[in-house]
Amino acid sequence: MSTFPDPLIRHLGLQPYGEVWRDMKRFTDERNENTADEFWLVTHPPVFTLGQAGKEEHLVVPGNIPVIKSDRGGQVTYHGPGQPIIYLLLNLRRLKMGVRELVSAIEHSIIELLDSYQIAATARKDAPGVYVAESKIASLGLRVRKGCSYHGLSFNLNMDLEPYSRINVCGYPGLRVTQLADLIELPPEEKLIFNQLINCLIHQLGYTARLNESRVAFDGK
Q1: Per-domain boundaries in the chain
Q2: Is residue 170 among the annotated active site residues?
Q3: 85: DSSP letter
Q4: Is 218 exposed, middle or buried (0-12, 13-18, 19+ CB in 10 A)?
Q5: pLDDT tens-digit readout, 112-156
Q6: For 181, which of 65, 141, 158, 210 could close a Cys bridge (C-beta 3.0–4.6 Å)?
Q7: CATH code given to domain 8-218
Q8: DSSP-derived 3-state class of residue 97
């Protein structure tokens, strides 16, 4: 178990993707060995993001939704309202954790969350993320610099899924997507999903504490 300070949890609200990406890079560049890890909780206005090695051919018909070329791993995905996103700004060297271990911890956190709703979910070695009956419900994309991670996960809660039909999701033509609102009778509020995901992540990553309200900052505008 980790003996490091509890991570700081920042609620950013609805924020433009580009601004949050810029701030993640700045935080990673400026942090040092004593900087506490942070989780950033956010949603974005509609946007397609293309990973560092992403192929534009997977943007089939983006239409009027903006496209941003990002420095995360992976291909193309969609972000929009109704999709909780958690960015993980972690010192992996301090956690003694590799990228593959981090990916597994994130996937297992989402699987743990879905299990609490009696939904069976799985991960796939060939396509990072979490799936329910072959449909993707959560996506992952990470970048590591200076031994520290940024970017993170997106979870489809209760959103307009139509934009996914305009892309080859994560570079896989024909890959279907789903969301929690289509799998249970009454989907929970976004705040609850954020809190549940954070507690699952803290558990899977080996921090000693559960969600500590004294370590939560509300930074949304």
Answers
A1: 8-218
A2: yes
A3: E
A4: exposed
A5: 999 999 999 999 988 889 999 999 999 999 999 999 999 999 999
A6: 158
A7: 3.30.930.10
A8: coil
